[in-house]
UniProtKB/TrEMBL annotation:
InterPro entries: Flavin_Rdtase-like_dom, NADH-dep_flavin_reductase, Split_barrel_FMN-bd. The keyword Ribonucleoprotein does not apply. The keyword rRNA processing does not apply. Keywords: Oxidoreductase. This is Flavin reductase family protein.
Length: 171
């Protein structure tokens, strides 16, 4: 038997400002996650949406622990991820704003299951929340996709360094 070797201490985390600065220069697609609540439709802007698996079709996104969306998502059984089109920067800003009724005067439709869907997006996916995993000061949700719709003609909205730059046309 050998003596156990001491475990080296975990390295310090990168500072919050440095970490955010790195990700400001990492372009991300923009989505609005919506759901139905007893108080009416709810939603928030997310740039953290990722594809996780194809079989079964799974995606994930995270939400900050202190956000209003976190409290809503603690109990939401299903969501719609609306992938915004290039001309929907104002929709992204609206759903990122605090203290406003994000659906006031906004055109949207409601699925038979109750979730709001935003028109004019490049695509949307309705999904059932499978897992909620606390990670640091955020909550990571994994979602099983159960319904999808896409508009191949629309260009996606991209977020980079606190702005929505236009993508170069395809070659």
């Amino acid at each position: 038997m050998t003596a156990e070797q001491p475990v080296p201490p975990a390295p310090e985390s990168v500072g919050a400002e440095e970490f955010k600065a790195v990700f400001r220069n990492h372009p991300a697609g923009v989505a609005v996650v919506t759901c139905a609540t007893p108080a009416g439709p709810a939603g928030f802007t997310a740039t953290s949406v990722i594809s996780v698996a194809v079989h079964p079709a799974m995606l994930a996104f995270s939400v900050a622990a202190g956000s209003m969306a976190r409290r809503i998502l603690d109990t939401a059984a299903s969501v719609v991820v609306n992938f915004l089109a290039a001309d929907q920067a104002e929709v992204a800003r609206r759903f990122a704003a605090r203290g406003v009724d994000r659906f006031a005067g906004l055109d949207h439709c409601t699925l038979p299951t109750g979730e709001p869907v935003l028109p004019g997006t490049t695509a949307w996916i309705r999904g059932v929340v499978e897992h909620r995993v606390p990670v640091g000061d955020s909550l990571l949700l994994t979602v099983r996709a159960v319904l999808a719709h896409r508009d191949v003609a629309a260009e996606p909205l991209v977020y980079l360094d606190r702005a929505f730059p236009e993508l170069a046309p395809p070659r």
